[in-house]
Amino acid sequence: MKLQSLITKATQFPEATIAVAAAEDEEVLKAVAQALQAGFGRFILYGDESVLSRLVPEYVQDENRHAIRIVHASTKEEAAHMAVKAVHGKAASVLMKGNVPTATILKAVLNKEYGLRTGRVLSHVALFDVPHYERPILVTDAAMNIAPDLQQKTEIIINAVQVAKAIGIHTPKVAPLAAVEVVNPAMPATIDAAALSLMNQRGQLKDCIVDGPLALDNAISVESAQHKGIESSVAGHADILVVPNIETGNVLYKSLVYFARAQVGAIIAGAKAPIVLTSRADSAESKLYSLALAICATNE
Predict the structure, then answer these.
(1) From CA 265, how far away is CA 1, in angstroms rounded?
(2) I want to staple 243 with a disulfide (CB 3.0 to 4.6 A). Which of 33, 80, 249, 258 is the partner?
(3) Contact 233, 209 (CB under 8 A)
(4) Same topology for domains 3-117+271-297 and 123-259, yes or no?
């Protein structure tokens, strides 16, 4: 599914309410305005009421302002906690990070009393539209788990598969990435990839097809896989790329955005509700795609 189509899909579900923590941000409010114009979502904006009351009319058209409620918060920390509490109490079904540090909002998400933990690993799932590549592709985990072990990678895959199914990929093909295509005891990523593949074959990882280790070129290029003689239903056809660590994911993510000019939407999965945790440097367009992805994920 192309990211533009994701917006159309998001409008087909019952209207979701999004709680935005520290919403006093130009790109966030642009994304909110675009979402309302597209026809999906209602928004609770937590932040400085005087600032938001001034900014909202600059971005949101008059006919859409009925879908916005402003709730005053004295600090960014208070805004984060209030937004998380709204999702925990089901006043909202999606949490969105505004102009607040990631550590601050994650502290609220992980709060034992009213947070959004489920006991599962939280992981970042990004959906990319890459120019001149024939289909969208999911990348995980580029932002949350630093050096995931085998069990964490298992849960990262489960989260990504659920997101894939939410956007219409019912049996996604999963490629655990490494630098080579063979198991090398000196390269732990290859060992984990082989173990994940075997777990999939034995039914421990369901609703997907996992095969690895695969290098990036063999995961996404049929020609490359054929040239190397790799026989695999995943090679050249991967829907989900599982990176071995956060450095690899971060570089791949930013390479796609800055070198390839890819469009991207991303969420944190594995919590009680999807979390739109984009960077403060991300564009309004990226935040809009992330909102659409989150709404689709709530209806999986």
Answers:
(1) 12
(2) 249
(3) yes
(4) yes
pTM (two decimals): 0.94
Residue 13 has a pLDDT of: 86
pLDDT tens per residue, range 58-97: 999 888 889 999 999 999 999 999 999 999 999 999 999 9
- How far apart, in whole angstroms, are the C-alpha atoms of residue 287 and residue 31? 6
Q: Give the C-alpha separation, 96 to 291, whole Å.
A: 8
SS3 (DSSP) at 202:
coil
Tokens of 185: 């005891």
User: How far is 41 from 291, CA to CA, in rounded Å?
Assistant: 9
The kind and range of the H/E element at 174 are strand 173-176
What residues does each domain of the chain span? 3-117+271-297, 123-259
Q: Residue written as tokens 């964490």?
A: 152
**CATH superfamily, with its number, for domain 123-259:** Isopropylmalate Dehydrogenase (3.40.718.10)
SS3 content of the chain, % helix, strand, coil (to 5): 45, 15, 40
Just give the CATH number of 3-117+271-297.
Answer: 3.40.718.10
